[in-house]
Amino acid sequence: MTSSIDRMRAAWRFFLNGWRDWDQTASFVPSSRFLVDALVQGADLGRARSVVELGTGTGTVTEKLLAAMRPDARLYGVEIDGPLLQATARRLPDPRLVAIHGSAADLAEHLADAGEHGKVDAIVSCLGMSLLPPELRDAIVDSAARVLAPGGVFVQYGYLHAHVIVYSTTRGFSQFHLGRYLGRYFAEQRRQIVVPNIPPAEVLVCRGSLPRDISAAA
Predict the structure, then answer these.
(1) pTM, whole model, 2 decimals?
(2) Cβ proximity of 129 and 137 under 8 Å
(3) Which of 33, 38, 162, 213: disulfide with 130, CB 3.0–4.6 Å?
């Protein structure tokens, strides 16, 4: 019963955040199971011992990641909304889940504080990249690329309509091509289209972090 209440409270808070902080959440509702499945499958969790989720939100993706992870793996869930993170952690009392309250732009510091001093095997980002302020978006992806192990994977989703038009409450209308953007930070990409999601989405599975000077100059 408590778990159901936490889930409903989290979903309601996520919905409210969509109205108050549209540029941060980029959605009013959690991802569909089709999009969640694509994110989890892209993370190659069969051999991952250290996994990071950026933007745990209501825990929809978190729960599926835990179900697919190895028994000896650890999941670091990073979320900037403290109450939302607490509700998800209560609903998913898995000892492998380490809840981290803070910005995804400071991954190295957060992971070190949590006792993870090495590189991580997989990062799954549930952040709305198309609407984040450009400086923050760059800081987050650069931070992720820096902590990713050689051969590690970075998984990010985006909405297909962003290629044509994106509306930001602070910057107005623009366009955002996720693949081109992530190409500044990663050498390899694999793209999957998720049509059943609302709105239709794409999932990019990226490998091969580029050196900082190369990505910054691109």
Answers:
(1) 0.84
(2) yes
(3) 162
What's the pLDDT tens digit per position in 40-97? 999 999 999 999 999 999 999 999 999 999 999 999 999 999 999 999 999 999 999 9
Q: In this structure, how many other beta carbons lie within 10 angstroms of the beta carbon of residue 132? A: 21
- Edge-to-edge strands, sheet with 201-209: 97-101, 74-79, 50-54, 120-125, 148-159, 201-209, 186-194
Work out the number of other CB atoms within 10 angstroms of the CB of residue 175: 11
Dihedral class, residue 102 (left if φ above 0, else alpha if ψ from -120 to 50, else beta):
left
Contact 179, 160 (CB under 8 A): no
> Which among 216, 186, 214 is positioned nearest to 42, based on CA atoms?
186
The angle, 0 to 180 degrees and rounded to 10, between the axes of the packed helices 33-42 and 60-68 is 40
Query: Distance between CA 81 and CA 92 in Å, rounded?
Result: 17
Residue pLDDT, tens place only, 136-151: 999 999 999 999 999 9
Cα(99)–Cα(76) distance, integer angstroms:
6
The count of other CB atoms within 10 Å of the CB of residue 67 is 10
pLDDT value, residue 148: 97
